[in-house]
Amino acid sequence: MTDPVVTYRAERLLVTDQQLADWEVVDDGQGRPIQAEGPCPSCQHRTDGEVKLTVYGHGAGGVSATLAPVERITRVFECACGMTHMTETDPPEPQDSCGRWWLASIRLAADGPGQRVRRGIDDTLLSAAKALEAAGDAEETRLRAAAGHWTAGVAALLGLFGVSGVVVGKDSLLGLTLGARVAAGVLTCLALVSAGAAIVLSYRAAYGWPVLDDVGDDDKLRQWFESRRGHLKVAADELKNAVRWALIALGLLAAALALIWFRPSQPARPVVQVNRTDESSICGTLLDTSANGTVRIKTPAGEVQVVKVTDIQSVKGTTAAACQRPGG
After folding, report:
1. How many whole angstroms separate alpha carbon 232 and alpha carbon 220?
2. Measured between alpha carbons, how far is 204 from 150 in angstroms, rounded to an integer?
3. b/e string for 126-144 if b means 16 or more Cβ within 10 A?
4. Three-state SS at 233
């Protein structure tokens, strides 16, 4: 029905303990309040409000601190009676509440005498409580948006494997000594780690890291509100570190390229197939020899065979892959 007395007005109501004397608290079964309900101090219609104990935020480091509980938890409540209240405009428009809101505190301890819901006595928590209310309304949107941004970050991270493959491919290492190959591999691995750190830090600076913050009492609410102000400085530091790690990654990749391109390499030894006069053949890498009239060949199995020149019928060039095949 329509309330003929209380018109709709979105404004703060300075409540008293007496106006909240009939309010009750709904617990989660473990003594933690999750809802408070009672008559609206303005229109007297039955209303209720959620007592949010946690909220998802974008902490710069992904860590939320834990504090010891205190005696009360302060929240902003607003009329949500669902009854029709007319605005003061001309013509009047119907609204489903009287529009008033107020600051109230809930004692965390359910046992003991006295009412649990009282007027908010600490006005310094008003800004924090309003910020928490706004954060709770938009937390799903923020989480979905952050997930979308981080998906692009993961894709960029996986793309680093393609970069490392271009720098240190199989063919680019042919002819290098074992030490040069190891050095190029180590430099590339370090570059991947540095580039990965740069991507993570830059995305975390831009979009934060979704964390579940505990705001289950006044001290935790105050710390959550203060930490929001410090996120900009942390994000700026992380962005600077991201640029530094990106430059380090670029330098490491440049060093790996220089090692591959400019380091003296061992000349590639020819792979040959030697056909002997007895109709047998040997396939492998041609080695140096100091004995006149002989040829040394290292087979794919690692065995070195010495063939006399007088026993050779023909010699033809081939590939290492051909030597691996049966009959090669």
Report:
1. 20
2. 9
3. eebbebbbebeeebeebee
4. helix
Burial of 180 (0-12, 13-18, 19+ CB in 10 A): middle
Q: Write down the pLDDT at residue 7.
A: 92
Residue 272: CB partners within 8 Å, gap ≥ 6? 283, 284, 285, 286, 297, 315, 316, 317, 318
pLDDT in tens, 35-66: 899 999 999 999 988 887 765 555 544 444 33
Q: Which of 79-88, 140-149, 244-253 shows the lowest per-residue confidence on average (mean pLDDT)?
A: 140-149
Paired tokens of 117: 């819901």
Residue type, 282: I
Tens digits of residue pLDDT in 3-25: 457 999 999 999 998 999 999 88
Residue appearing with tokens 């680093």? 160
Residue from 69, 72, 31, 76 nearest 50 by CA: 76
- The top-scoring range by mean pLDDT among 10-19, 193-202, 311-320 is 10-19
Separation of alpha carbons 197 and 208, rounded Å: 15
CATH number (1.10.1200.10, 3.40.50.1110, 2.120.10.30, 2.30.30.100) of 271-324 reads 2.30.30.100
Instruction: Name 129's Cβ contacts closer than 8 Å, sequence gap at least 6.
Output: 74, 75, 76, 103, 120, 221
**Sole residue written with tokens 């240190």:** 168
For the chain, give the percent of residues with pLDDT over 90. Answer: 12
Highest mean pLDDT among 112-121, 175-184, 226-235, 285-294: 285-294
Q: Which of 50-54, 85-89, 299-303 has the lowest mean pLDDT?
A: 50-54
76: β partners: 103
Class of residue 85 by CB neighbours under 10 A (exposed 0-12, middle 13-18, buried 19+): buried
Alpha-carbon distance of 12 to 47, in angstroms, equals: 16
Alpha-carbon dihedral sign for residues 200, 202, 205, 207: negative
